[in-house]
Amino acid sequence: IKHDFPGRWTAVIDKIGFYLQSQNSGSWLGSLLCLYQLVKTYEYKKAEERDPLIAAMQIFLPRLQQQIIQLLPDTSHYSVLLQKQILKIFYALVQYALPLQLVNNQTMTHWMEIFRTVIDREVPAETLQVDEDDRPELVWWKCKKWALHIVTRLFERYGSPGNVTKEYFEFSEFFLKTYAVGIQQVLLKILDQYRQKQYIASRVLQQALNYLNHGVIHSVTWKQMKPHIQGISEEVIFPLMCYKDEDEELWQEDPYEYIRMKFDVFEEYVSPATAA
Length: 276
Prior knowledge:
- By secondary structure, the chain is mainly α.
- It is 67% helix and 0% strand.
- The chain has 15 helices and no strands.
- The radius of gyration is 20 Å and the shape is globular.
- 31% of the residues are buried.
């Protein structure tokens, strides 16, 4: 796809569309993976170079929205795997440049409700039987992570008036007024679950804190956050930053590994402690 679209393989759009609409759900994941590769090809291109992608997504984005809405009530492994892949496609589409011709206020409202639902829904109880080190790799937590990734990126890059380029100014005001508080309400609930010693995957916790970091600077989100901030500071942020028993154990056993882990540049991008 990277080398042949759109020049030598224009028919790939029809192929993906055919398999996405197939009654055989077994073909859906493969077609979503193909679409993801197509979007990834244009992920970091300038807006004026994304015309083939925009044309394709005018067809696919409404279909993806319809498909994920139908899948949401089903929390089986395969259904959530498909949902995760749709979220990854959306993230790759919007993370560098927001195509306003595809996502107007009405369309974005439907998508934001989808993201909120994914972030807020319960992870199946049987996942607690899985070893804690392996739980972040479970598809239910990964699906939440990608939904959070999207809302945090939208807030950070397009949803903060005063920090956006002029083409996104109108969207940023709408985002802050319409979505920011509703999403933050769900994230405060996640942090409260963490305070109550319920399991929360580290990447989900990290993204939740990153979102709140952007919320602190806006009066509308700060007003909602303010009554909770002392509890969050004392019972979430401070413990994450503290030197723990497992840190002491690693320091005693392998100080080189401790230093590598604590000062790993890549780890900083995914660590809840860094977000704290």
